[in-house]
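Input for the complex:
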Amino acid sequence: AQTVTQSQPEMSVQEAETVTLSCTYDTSENNYYLFWYKQPPSRQMILVIRQEAYKQQNATENRFSVNFQKAAKSFSLKISDSQLGDTAMYFCAFMRPPNAGNNRKLIWGLGTSLAVNP
Amino acid sequence: GAGVSQTPSNKVTEKGKYVELRCDPISGHTALYWYRQSLGQGPEFLIYFQGTGAADDSGLPNDRFFAVRPEGSVSTLKIQRTERGDSAVYLCASSLNLGTTQYFGPGTRLLVL
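Predicted:
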């Protein structure tokens, strides 16, 4: 069974600085999808970034980028130029590929609570 | 366009009562998912619909939980004989066909007294 581990329950960063959130996962699949979602106090789960395992290039979305290390099964999120609005819970999630049949659920880590301090 | 909507936003009920939670997916999204998130935890998968049929209901904790999606759009999660342990945020998400990205609603916070 697939598992997702986020080893940092809480982190903090000063505004405008850079922070990296860790995520590791376990799977026997060769192709799969990885996601980072952000959940602010409003509890709306917001997609931050997505990575397909077959793509070697790391995904980027503005200030957000990932370091995807497939062999190490590591998928860390880097937030550059942190802003107060980045304060939220961040969840790493795994999904099996489309050819895995009906198994389309997301498997989640426990989350990392990030506080951006002024 | 409009995102995923969920109603009610908050629901307080008494132990033993029946509740219904509603999810309205993004227009055109054929896949719909329900997750449950307990305090301090990541979401936990409950059930997934492709069209009108439940493609995977392996996450439903017991037979008190049931979900329907009769017309392939709006879905209702139904919980019978609620227990205090059912208290959680219930999240709904939708995706385009078998697309990989799931878009979430704001959730329904259920509190069972």
